[in-house]
């Protein structure tokens, strides 16, 4: 068992070495610029494969519409806007993502999904949504996000804080 643990540690060290080298040489910022490009291009095939599941997942969003007929949605970690086409017509979306380099790809998705209105794009992490007012949104969406945040509990607390009662 101890031999297996040493082997696993060696594999992890070998796999993480490139990231340590990028950070050491100050090239880690390159990842933040490359990831949005990859995410945007992967979105198309991902949505094709997940189309029916996503349609089902977002099918009931319209039932959270306010008495005045509006639906205000906050998407935490919107990335390149992969979920936009599944949101109901007329929905107002507030986009958040911690990577500022995601915005050009996000704007391309906004141009394609004209059935929505977009309130703002905020460069924020899910753990700290201080720019979003308390009880100001009807729905919070965070798909493929909670696996990459530093503190899931804080993200959920922030989501609770911004949701209307």
From TrEMBL:
CDD domains assigned to the protein according to its UniProt record, in alphabetical order: AdoMet_MTases
Domain Methyltransferase type: 74-164
Pfam families listed in its UniProt record: Methyltransf_11 (PF08241)
Cited InterPro entries: Methyltransf_11, SAM-dependent_MTases_sf, Thiol_S-MT
Entry protein name: Methyltransferase type 11 domain-containing protein
Gene3D superfamilies: Vaccinia Virus protein VP39 (3.40.50.150)
């Amino acid at each position: 068992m101890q031999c297996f643990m040493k082997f696993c540690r060696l594999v992890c060290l070998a796999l993480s070495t490139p990231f340590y080298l990028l950070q050491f040489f100050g090239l880690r910022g390159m990842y933040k610029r490359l990831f949005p490009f990859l995410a945007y291009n992967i979105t198309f095939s991902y949505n094709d494969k997940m189309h029916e599941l996503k349609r089902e997942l977002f099918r009931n969003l319209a039932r959270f519409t306010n008495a005045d007929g509006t639906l205000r949605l906050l998407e935490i970690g919107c990335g390149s806007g992969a979920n936009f086409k599944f949101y109901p017509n007329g929905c107002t979306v507030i986009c958040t993502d911690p990577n500022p380099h995601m915005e050009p790809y996000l704007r391309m998705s906004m141009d394609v999904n004209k059935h929505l209105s977009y309130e703002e794009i905020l460069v924020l992490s899910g753990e700290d949504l201080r720019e979003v007012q308390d009880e100001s949104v009807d729905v919070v969406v965070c798909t493929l996000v909670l696996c990459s945040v530093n503190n899931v509990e804080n993200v959920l607390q922030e989501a609770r804080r911004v949701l209307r009662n």
